[in-house]
Automatic annotation (TrEMBL):
Main location: cytoplasm
Residue span(s) of domain MHD1: 353-475
UniProt domain C2: residue ranges: 712-840
Gene3D superfamilies: 1.10.357.50, 1.20.58.1100, C2 domain (2.60.40.150)
Subcellular location per the Swiss-Prot or TrEMBL entry: Cytoplasm; Late endosome
Protein keywords: Cytoplasm, Endosome, Exocytosis
Source superkingdom: Eukaryota
GN (gene name): UNC13D
Signal sequence, renumbered to the chain: none
Comp. bias (Polar residues): 838-848
Protein name: Unc-13 homolog D
Biological processes per GO annotation: exocytosis
Family: Belongs to the unc-13 family.
Length: 896
């Protein structure tokens, strides 16, 4: 738009200056312009394709520059007028053909005008729809022909524009509906047949390239599903079956398209990842990239595309693709790895490990195959045998280096995580973490061959055991270095940490069968590896390593316990000092030792894990028992042995309670060892008073009498009853049998001596004797004796009736025929506690006893030896003298 200017002279402009000085600048500017030049007001640019038949709008004037942006608006009223009719559509063509042409132009125009990214869903503007309907009505086109025209047009547009697949399905349904209702002309039949067949071929081409055209996204996969439905619907229509007599199996065609497309896709990817040089590592890297692409594609086929194909056309695309890749990948891997034969080294082997893992992942997907047959990938591991030792050595050396570094920086101090203290140090935790990659390597390998897998397990187990054992050696070296400049307390503390670290590693070895899944391997190899070979190999490796760790732990615990052993011995020796015997009670004498032990054990319990603390307790207990035993043996011949034994016995009881700790320490089974039982019996024996020892002596004799069999020295028969009412013990000596001849004439002059023992229980009871029977080896006495004794005396420990048979000699000491011991608690009336008033006659038969006579064995009784050592006790010495006299007279002494 322009502003028209008239031609004005300079003289006229100067005249205007006189009248209007305010616009001088404008006037000078206008005066300089050429004569007849118009001013530019603005312009409007309109695209014809955007205009409708009629337009009546205001349009904004656009400036040339930004100096004066606001140029105003212009009102335009536009109309399109046809001066002549276009007859190109109808010239020599049928109405059906013209209808198809009009339809295509309307659809293309509508889609172009919409400019939407969404697919066209078959809608047209109202005017276009009206024109099509009018044209079909005027030219008498049937609905069948209209639907046919739409199918032909839409199926062609589908190949070039974004057309919603549901539009095609709708037209196919309409064609199927009209097929039997109206006969199509020959030309339209041919057109329909060609269109259906052509779309099928086009659809199969799309299926072959489904990876690129229909990526595994939520928006693309529904399009693939609809396309497959269209292909299925085409094959099901009667029109297709009638117009295409050749056999067409859609399932097989789609399978072939998938196979072909997969091979083409693999070839393209292989070309993209082709190595630039002949370097073996670069070749391996290219192979890894290709396998990664294949692995991802298999995953998409399994998780996404397979559902689409199965639901639409019942084609298992995952199985088809997997089997194709199985062949392609196997050949590619073999060709590539054959280039590396004889050239394997550590770095090259390391680059092959990701390839192995990727192939293994692909191979594991075979579990999802619907049809399983022979797979070439089943033996993929064979190509990696040369690299396998390098992988194992790499894992071992890396772990070994990490463990060494962990020990080098370890200060052997307990870890503190939060409020809960951990009793082992950082190197133990780090070492366990360092071993994990070896476990992971075994899991990652999952070596298919059972026999080779067993050998790999042997190697893996050996490596773990070596690392653990080497860790124990490194730890010992580390504690030596740190202990050089440390005080004794710090050294002990570090030693506790070392023991805990070793125990922690021992627990790792104990879990080795679980970590490496030995049981699963055992099931896999049961047909090729015998049970004995399996256990002898793997379990022996573990046991050897555990034995080494146990020795190291015991050595460290022995070092910890060595100071304790010395201090315990010092405290025990202090209890044996003679001058302290009368001045201290047993409890006071043992108190220093118990306080020391409680303090030390509490410290050890705080600084050692429970397993190590228990391991320390066991040798400490055994050594404590040994020290007590040694102390006893060293002082067994000194005075005051009884008091010292009582102290040792009390100390042993306190130690037992301390080490048992109410069930929290050592078990009673471990505490009551053979040496403990021996020491306890010995201390109990020597802690007794002389009277207790005498009672024990008679209890032994009573037991010996009950167990004695035979009548080598003869026997004595008697009746013994007790009447509670008047506290009388009645003894009827009946006879003696089979006595030994003591006189030169081959006979004896026997009599029976009755005595109640021990003497301190029956101090006022006098012994009794029967009459002497001359020259008789089977004398009949038939004499009765009564003893006035209480029931409590009869039930006292060791209370017994000693029956001694002697041979009377006038000028010499009476000869000893034998003796028998009857426990008073077994006497009728005492054992049954008969009530007062019970008939004595009724007890006669039940109280009769026949006891064999015994002879004592000289110098074999420990009680007599102990009593004999107590020189200051007159009662003990008198008893020993009496018993020694019997031993001298014993026939057992003659035989010995």
């Amino acid at each position: 738009m322009w502003d028209k200017d008239e031609e004005v002279s300079l003289t006229q402009k100067l005249e205007e200056i006189r009248t209007s000085l305010t616009s001088i600048r404008r006037m000078i500017k206008e005066a300089k312009k050429e004569k007849g030049t118009d001013d530019f007001l603005g312009n409007i640019v309109l695209k014809l394709q955007d205009l409708h038949c009629t337009e009546d709008n205001w349009y904004k004037l656009e400036p040339r520059t930004e100096t004066y942006p606001d140029r105003g608006q212009c009102h335009l009223n536009l109309k399109f007028i046809h001066k002549a009719r276009d007859e190109t559509l109808s010239a020599g063509r049928s109405a059906y053909t013209n209808y198809c042409g009009i339809l295509q132009q309307f659809v293309q125009a509508y889609i172009s005008k919409e400019q939407s990214s969404a697919p066209w869903k078959g809608a047209l503007c109202g005017e276009a729809q009206t024109l099509l309907e009018l044209y079909a009505t005027q030219n008498d086109l049937s609905p069948f022909l209209q639907d046919l025209a739409k199918w032909v047009a839409y199926s062609k547009l589908y190949q070039s524009l974004e057309v919603d697949s549901s539009v095609l399905l709708q037209q196919l349904t309409s064609i199927e509906y009209h097929w039997h209702q109206q006969e199509l002309p020959y030309q339209q039949k041919q057109e329909l047949g060609d269109s259906l067949h052509g779309f099928l071929q086009y659809g199969l081409c799309l299926v072959a390239k489904y990876r690129d055209i229909f990526p595994p996204t939520p928006t693309a996969t529904p399009k693939l599903h609809t396309l497959l439905r269209i292909l299925v619907q085409i094959c099901k229509t009667q029109a297709f079956q009638k117009l295409n007599p050749a056999h067409f199996e859609l399932h097989d065609e789609i399978n072939d398209a998938i196979q072909t497309g997969t091979e083409e896709w693999f070839t393209i990817k292989k070309g993209l990842h082709q190595p630039m040089t002949k370097d073996l590592k670069e070749i391996g890297s290219a192979l890894f990239k290709l396998i990664t692409e294949v692995k991802e594609d298999i995953k998409h086929n399994k998780d996404v595309w397979n559902r689409v194909f199965v639901s639409a056309v019942q084609v298992d695309v995952f199985t088809a693709v997997y089997q194709k890749f199985d062949c392609l990948l196997t050949n590619e891997v073999k060709q590539t790895l054959s280039l590396m034969d004889g050239q394997m080294e550590q770095n090259l082997a390391k680059s092959l490990f990701p390839i192995y893992l990727s192939l293994q992942t692909i191979h594991k997907d075979k579990a999802f195959l619907q049809r399983r047959g022979f797979l070439q990938l089943s033996s993929f591991h064979e190509s990696f045998r040369e690299a396998l030792p390098y992988w194992l050595n790499q894992a071992f050396s890396t772990t070994q280096d990490r463990v060494e570094r962990a020990v080098q920086v370890d200060q052997l101090q307990p870890l503190q995580i939060g409020a809960v203290p951990i009793k082992h140090s950082s190197s133990a935790v780090d070492s366990v973490a360092c071993i994990q990659p070896i476990y992971q390597l075994w899991d990652q390998l999952s070596w298919p061959d059972p026999e080779e897998a067993f050998m790999l397990m042997v190697k893996t187990t050996e490596d773990v055991c070596k690392i653990v054992v080497n860790y124990s050696h490194l730890l010992k070296q580390r504690v030596r270095v740190l202990s050089e400049n440390s005080d004794h307390g710090s050294a002990i503390n570090m030693l506790c940490v070392v023991v805990n670290d070793l125990e922690h590693m021992r627990s790792v070895l104990e879990k080795l069968p679980v970590q490496l899944k030995w049981e699963g391997l055992r099931e896999r190899t049961q047909n090729v590896i015998g049970q004995s070979q399996f256990e002898n190999t793997l379990h022996s490796q573990k046991h050897q390593a555990l034995s080494t760790l146990s020795r190291e732990i015991k050595s460290a615990l022995a070092t910890l316990g060595r100071k304790l052993y010395t201090d315990i011995e010092i405290h025990v020796r202090s209890m044996s000092t003679r001058r302290r015997i009368p001045s201290k009670s047993t409890e006071d004498a043992a108190a220093p030792l118990m306080r020391y032990l409680e303090q030390e054990l509490e410290y050890m319990n705080e600084n050692l894990v429970q397993e190590n603390f228990n391991s320390l307790l066991t040798p400490l207990w055994e050594n404590s028992v040994k020290i007590l035993h040694q102390m006893f043996n060293q002082h067994s011949q000194q005075e005051g042995l009884m008091v010292f034994s009582q102290r040792l016995q009390y100390t042993l009881q306190c130690l037992e309670q301390c080490f048992h700790a109410e069930g929290n320490g050592l078990s009673l089974q471990k505490l009551h060892s053979d040496e403990y039982q021996t020491l306890k019996a010995l201390l109990t024996h020597h802690s007794m008073t002389s009277q207790q020892l005498i009672e024990k002596f008679f209890r032994r004799k009573i037991t010996e009498q009950k167990n004695y069999s035979g009548e080598k020295y003869g026997a004595v028969t008697f009746l013994a009853t007790y009447r509670i009412s008047d506290q009388r013990l009645r003894v009827d000596v009946l006879n003696a049998l089979k006595l030994l001849p003591m006189d030169s004439n081959g006979f004896s002059d026997p009599f029976v001596h009755l005595c109640l023992e021990p003497h301190h229980i029956f101090p006022e009871v006098e012994p009794r004797c029967t009459q002497i029977k001359r020259c008789d080896l089977n004398p009949l006495f038939d004499e009765t004796f009564e003893f006035l004794v209480s029931l409590d005396q009869c039930l006292a420990p060791g209370a017994c009736l000693v029956i001694t048979v002697l041979d009377h000699d006038t000028l010499m000491t009476d000869d000893f025929e034998g003796e028998a011991f009857l426990a008073l608690e077994d006497v009728s009336g005492i054992s049954t506690k008969e009530e007062e008033g019970q008939s004595l006659q009724s007890d006669t038969s039940s109280g009769q006893k026949r006891l064999p006579l015994m002879h004592p064995k000289p110098n074999e009784d420990s009680i007599l030896k102990l009593l004999e050592s107590r020189k200051s006790e007159r009662e003990a010495q008198a008893f020993v003298k009496k018993r020694r006299q019997r031993e001298k007279q014993s026939q057992e002494a003659v035989k010995s």
